[in-house]
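Build the 3D complex.
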Amino acid sequence: MGILVDKKTRVVVQGITGRDGSFHTRQMKEYGTNIVAGVTPGKGGSGFEGIPIFDSVAEAVKKTRANTSILFVPVAFAVDAIYEAADAGIELIVCITEGVPTNDMLQVYDYLKRRGVRLIGPNSPGIIHPGVTKVGIMPGQIHKKGDIGVVSRSGTLTYEVVYNLTIRDLGQSTCIGIGGDPIIGTNFIDCLERFEADPKTKGIVMIGEIGGTDEEEAALYIKKYVTKPVVAFIAGRTAPPGKRMGHAGAIISGGTGTAAEKVKALNTVGIPVAVSPAEIADLMYKKLKAVKTQKKKTAAKPARKKSVTRKSTKKKSIAKKAVAKKSTAKKSAARKIAAKKTTTGKRAVKKKTTKKTVAGKSATRKSTASKSTTRTSKTGTKARK
Amino acid sequence: MKIHEYQARELFASFGINVPRGKVAYTPEEVRDIAAEYGAPVMVKSQVHVGGRGKAGGIKHCPDTKSAYDNAQNILGMDIKGLTVKKVLVTEAVDIAHKSYVGIIIDRAAKKPVIMVSAEGGIDIEEVAAKTPEKIHKWHVDPLVGLRMFEARNLATKIYANPKTAAAAAKIIMQLYDCFINSDTSLVEINPLVTTPAGEVIAIDAKINIDDNGLYRHRDLEELREVEASEQSENEARQMGLSFVGLEGNIGCVVNGAGLAMATMDLVKHHGGQPANFLDIGGSSNPEKVVTAMRIILRDPGVKAILFNIFGGITRCDDVATGIVRAVEEFKPSVPIVVRLTGTNEEEAKKILANSQLQSADTMVGVVTRAIELAGLN
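Done.
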C-alpha cells in the first residue's frame, strides 16, 4: 500500500515547461508516474511530450481529474501556485521549490489545514512509492520495493540512507522528504501515524536534523502510538549554534534545537540513533528481529484494529469539517485512528479528539513491550563496537 | 540576517513606532556634534551584531557633550565578543519611569507568530523566561487574520495598569506586528519599551532579524547586509549560490545537500577528525561552484585534507568532477584530496578523474576515514 501516494495518484506538474520542471517530468514519467497534466500560465493548449498543458490548475483538474500536484515554480510564484492547487481541488501538493518566506508559509499552513489539503514541503525532494509512483526529484533507481517507511527533513542525506537500505536488502514502502524549512506542511508525526496504519510498512526510519523541536515531539508520539520498530538518524551533531546550516530550518537558536537534545529524546523512548547512514540498516535488522521474537510470544493476542477503523470513520464528519472527498476520507481514516488515541499534551496532536479506545490502550501496551526490546538492541550495538 | 539597531529603529519609525531622535556616527567628533545638536544628555550605543552590549560597556549615558566625546572615544574600536565597534548610535536620552519588553517571533511548533510582553524589560529576557516564566505573557496570532486591536489591547493591559499608557502600548504592538509581517522578519524586539514620567511610551531599543528567504522581495533590506570580517568566506560562498559555514577543524568538506553535509561533518568527528567547515554546493551544481568551494577551503591553514562527498541526484557527478580537475589545476593544493562520487553520471565522473592523482572512495564512511588517515590524524 504505502502512504499518501499510490497507483491512483494522478499528477499535474506546475511549472512543467521550466528547466527543472521539464527534466523531472521526464524522469517521473520514466519511473512510471501517472502524469496527466502540466500547468504553465500562458501556455495552455500546448503540450509537453504528450502531456497536455493548461493555463490553470482548475482547468487541469477538470479535464484530467488530477488529484496530486508537484511544484517546480520559482520562489516568487510558489505560494500563489500552492493556493491555486488547493482551490482547484488538489488533495496532495508537493512543493519542491526552495526559499519560500517563512511568514508566507504560516498563512499557507493554516489555509491548507482549514481546507483539508495536504502539503509536502516546501524545500522537499518529494515522495516515492518504490516500484509504483514517484512524485519528486529523488533518483528512482536507488530505491527498492519493500516494507521500510522513510521520513526525512533532508534531500541527499535521504538518498544516502535509502541507498544503504537498498544494498542491505531493506526495500522501502514509501520515502518522504518533508523539507528543510522551519514551517512545513507535513511533519514527522503526520507521516508516523500513516506508517503505523499502513499494513505494508514493517519498520520506520526517521531522519532529523538540528533546529526546532519536531524530533522531540515525534519521540513522544512514537512512545504513545507507534508499535512498529523505529530507527533514527540526526544530522548536525557538530553544527555550531546560531548558524543556519544550509536549510532555513537547520539552526540552533536560543540554545534549543541541538542534535544532543534530539538524540536524547529519541533514546529515552527506546529509539536507537545511528551514527552514520550506513549503520541504520544494522539497527533496523536488530529491531525487526526483536519484534519477531516478541510477536511469537504474544501471538495469541487477537488484532482489534479493524473494527476501530470502521467506528472512527463513522464519526469522521463530526470530527472534521473539511470537504470530504472520497480519497481524502481514506487518507483521514488513518489520521482518525491516531486521533482517537490522543489524550493530552502536544499541540501537534492536540486538536483532535480525546476519547481513548481499545486500540489506543492496546497500542500503548504494545509500545511498552517494544521499549524493552529496544533496550536489548541498544546494548547489542554497544557490544558490537 | 541581522541588522543594526540604528537600521532597525529606522524601520520601526517607518511603521510609526515612537523612537527617540538619533543618528549614527563613526568618529568621536561626529558624536560630539550630534550631542551638541540634540542638547545633552544623550546615549552613545555601540553598533555590533551581538547581544550584551550594555554589559560589555558598549552603551553609555552621557550627561554632556564632553562625556559623549570621551565615551565615543572609548567605545569606537572596542572589542565586544570578538567584534570591533566601528560605529555608534547617538540618541536623545529619555527620562525613564518604567521599562517593559515587547517581542515577536515565530513559534515553530505552533506554526504561528507569537507576541511576548513583560513588565520587566531592559534586562536579559531569556533570563526572565528561564527564572520567572510567569512574568512573560504570550499570545499566538492567527496568521490568516493577523493581529487585531483587542488582542494588542489585552496584551498591553497585562503590563500597564494606566489605561492611557496601555492604549499607547497597544498601538505600538500593532505597529510592531505590521513591521514583523511586512518586512519578512523572523524576530522583532523592543527591549526596553519605556514609559516617561510624562506618560509617553517610547521604543529606546530596536532589534530585528530578517528572514533570508524573504529578502528577494526587499531589496532595500538586502542593502543593509553588513559582512563581518569573520564572515567574508560565508559571503563569498553565498554570492556563488553555495552555503558555507567556517569552523575550526582539520578536514575540509565539500558535500551536496545540507543534511548530507552535516552528516558528513558528524562522521568526521566520530572517526577522530574535526570538520573545518560546513559546505553545501547545492543542486544543479556547475563546475565553477566547486572551484569556489576549493578556493574558500584552501584559504584555511588548519585544513590538512579535503574530502568530497557527492550523492548525485539533481547534482551531476561529472560536473563536480570537472570542477575538481579545474580547481586542482588552478590551485595546485598541497593537501590530500579524497573523492567519493555516487549517483547521476557517476561513470562519466570516474573517467574525468581517472587521470588525476586524486584518491577515491566508494562509500561515505570510506571517504571520511581515508581523509582522516591522509591528514595524519590517526
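Confidence is low (pLDDT under 50) at residues 305-385 of chain A.
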